[in-house]
Amino acid sequence: MNNSLNRLIDGIVIALEREIIPRVDDAYARGQAFAVMDLLRNMRPRLEWSREVTLAQVGLQEAALKQVDDLCRGQVERPPAYAPPSAASTTLETKELEARRDRLEAEVCGVLKWLTEHRAALDAAVAKSVEDTLTNYMREAVKRELALTANPLFAEISRGANAWGTGAGRKTC
Amino acid sequence: MYQPVETELRARLTGFIEKQTGGPATVGELTRYSVGFSWLTYGFEATWEEGGNRQQHKLIARIGPPDGIFAPYSAVPQFVALKAIEHSGVPVPRVYWYTDSHEVLGAPFFLMEKVEGEAPLPWVPGGGAAFDDATRAALGEQFVAGLARLHGFQWRGTPAEQLDGARDVSQAAGAQIDFWERYLRLHERRPYPILEWGLLWLRANSPRAPRISIIHGDYRIGNFLVLDGRISAMLDWELVHLGDPHQDLGWMCMRAFRGRSPLMCHLVARDELYRRYQELSGIVVDPSAVTFYEIFGTFTLAVMHVGAANCFEGGNFDDLRMAAMGAQLWRLLSQLERLLSGEKP
């Protein structure tokens, strides 16, 4: 996910309170909406994004960066040195783990830039292997995130309705 | 979060129209439209006096909220572009007045004619056809012809000269890449390697533009109105700029706007689009430049999703649609990764 869990919960509560409940005519439906708000507020301090998902991604990052480091051993031009973390990822708090994920993403970005700038000076087979390692990592990481992503409801969001009808939505300039 | 009170908004719009026309004006009840993820859209009926005659029109106010996805906003590009092409044959709403001052509504805005019609959306249930054959053929022809007219429009010497963008055919792609990289840097809260890869690829593969045209920037299904089987208006000009005509072609060919349909924007086959556009505009289509701009478009759409998530995360913009967009970033990153890996668009 690309928003913090707390901000999402706060935003959902605000939307219910300010945008949805005042426009719901039915008292029972309003009661249900208030119950959702109540539950979200109680869930908020007890929830965090899945540690396992972040841990798996960090594992992929570390493996890719180590592989790049191994591939470039002996080359005149080498990417920014990869320093394996001193603490095992499994021992980190969720926030620390997310910070490590972001730092490793920045390292992957750095290697991509390095590869572009130094490709001509590298052994062609090594350059190709480094590229494959990075693209395989990116492909796998996005595949895992995508597997967790529900199909978008953009049509319903744009129309404000869930009836598909004729395929035409109301819009005005 | 910017959320004007309706009674105050009506009073301020009335005062604004009176100032523009120099006489009494009225503004009727406002309708807030849920469409658009960026500018706020209100519809209303207004009256004013012009040359001693009473005018009565249905108008739209488009307001750029201070914390919106493309903030800080300016009404100038949309206003000058729409004004310039008003009689060009591109179906557009008539624009009346604008201001970038925050004094009137607390945000830039412009007023334009309300055009009737329905907007077909790019998302079709089950991946089926969006239109019957006859409607598709009519709309497709008009859709392509509108773009050809826009790109063939002689903007030099018109208000559109004020638009941002490139004047040099060798800089058109680079100027856009710079623009979207700045946007990415402003909004990214964490690094995204696929976007960095995209930037590196785009900079290494930028084409030279065949000419500099007015570029709509979001020319696609979902951004036009249909009335009685005809396109009554092309909407959402907020990304308008000067640049390479291939940019609009690449954008309209993106998978995001056709899903599994073989038809670009559910309207026209790729070969037919190239052939008809070339015939109508006189601009020779370079398929490799279209591919470049499809990849560029996928990159920019992903970057917009980063921006949407960040606007929401910042805490001043509570529109949950922004967070919903942000949650779909991975879908765009997946499409971008496949394109960068050489998959045919």
Describe the structure.
The complex is a heterodimer of chains A (about 170) and B (about 350). Chain A is about 65% helix and about 0% strand. Chain A has six helices and one strand. In chain A, helix 1 packs antiparallel against helix 2, helix 3 runs parallel beside helix 4 and helix 3 packs antiparallel against helix 5. The longest helix of chain A is centred in the middle third of the chain and has 25 residues. About 5% of the residues of chain A have low confidence. The longest helix of chain B has 27 residues. In chain B, strands 1, 2, 3, 4, 5 and 6 form a six-stranded antiparallel β-sheet that branches. The model of chain B has no long low-confidence stretch (mean pLDDT about 95). Chain B is built from ten helices and 13 strands. At the A-B interface, helix 1, helix 4, helix 5, helix 6 and strand 1 of A face strand 7, helix 5, helix 8, helix 9 and helix 10 of B. Strand 1 of chain A pairs antiparallel with strand 7 of chain B.
Cα-based radius of gyration of chain B, to the nearest Å: 20 Å
Describe the oligomeric state of these chains in a short phrase. Answer: heterodimer
By DSSP, the count of extended strands of chain A is 1
Kindly state the mean pLDDT of chain A as a whole number?
Answer: 89
* Biggest sheet statistics of chain A: none
Kindly report the greatest chain-chain contact and the residue count on each side: A-B, 46 and 58 residues
Order of helices and strands of chain B: HEEEEHEEEHHHEEEEHEEHHHH
* Beta strand % of chain B: 15-25%
Number of helices of chain A: 6
Helix content of chain A: 55-70%
The overall strand count of chain B is: 13
